[in-house]
Amino acid sequence: MAQTNVTDDENQKTFIELFCSAEFIRGVDSELIFLSAINIFLSITAFLGNTLILVALHKETSLRPSSKLLYRNLAITDLCVGIIVEPLYVTNWTSVVKERWDICYYSLRTATFSGYTLCVVSALTLTAISVDRLLALLLGLRYRQVVTLRRTSITVIGFWILSIVGASTIIWNLIIFTWYQFIVAALCPVTTIFAYTKIFCTLRHNQIHVQNHVAQAQPSQAIPLNIARYRKAVYSTLWVQGTMVVCYLPFTIALALMPQRGIGIPISAYRTWHFTATLVYLNSSLNPLLYCWKISEVRQAVKETLRQLFCRSS
After folding, report:
1. Would you say the pTM of this structure is higher than 0.90?
2. Res. 183: pLDDT tops 70
3. How many of the other CB atoms lie within 10 Å of CB of 142?
4. What is the rounded distance in angstroms from the CA atom of residue 293 to the CA atom of residue 239?
5. Please, which residues have CB within 8 angstroms of residue 3's CB and are 6 or more apart in sequence?
6. DSSP letter at 13?
7. How many CA atoms lie within 13 A of 210 on its CB side?
8. How far apart are CA 301 and CA 283, in angstroms?
9. Which pLDDT score, from 0 to 100, does residue 94 have?
10. What is the mean pLDDT of residues 228-254?
11. Mean pLDDT of all residues in the chain?
12. Are 253 and 50 in contact (CB under 8 A)?
């Protein structure tokens, strides 16, 4: 791709200001129309899928309230992506095609702020789910006394406050925002990797311990069943976590390589930024499918909800 020439005035622009200037954006109309069509479809699927998941979680009673709250919070962020962020990006791309630069600027600014807020809440919530699974293994019977619904609720509220405050720094201080992105991007995967590594090491140690003592005493049948259920829950969250990494990684790399000011930004960076952002928002449509596929309690609740819905409509 040929690099767009950037004047001295444009060197002082942020990428949002640059992405809403006629001098920079040329010849991308067909790509923006294509992206708009994709995001309209993803917006609908994210809305329908996550609404169904929220209804199913409300009816589901076998999941612990604290664990249900974390999954509900994740579904809420995905739902907000479908009804807020993706429509804002469609508005932004439409305004570029029609050369409505005032709408372009404010829609992209709002979409960027809300998108960062929701993505960080999602990342923190998935990290909390991995820590929750580790605590369930390490604490044993004390888990219910330590991980309460009240403490989980306070944690979730803290995630939203931190994400909103952090995303707002993009408006008034790009240096702080850059450090904020770096800390979140480093802390979440490190914590998650540590949690799952500790989980599998502990499970392996417990398996060896049981095998060494199986000849001396017959183990209770409840323990293997609980461990089997626990393993299934861990693998379910790993699927959700892995899908998030696949969807978020290209955008993270593209963002890290793109300068915050107009100096040297090629038009290819604009294309990459929006295509990889669309991949991020695809995650909000995939998560409901993963919940139904990997979490049997949610799958049964969704089936029951759909059955009741079709019975009423017929």
Report:
1. no
2. yes
3. 10
4. 10
5. 264, 266, 267, 268
6. S
7. 13
8. 22
9. 93
10. 88
11. 84
12. no
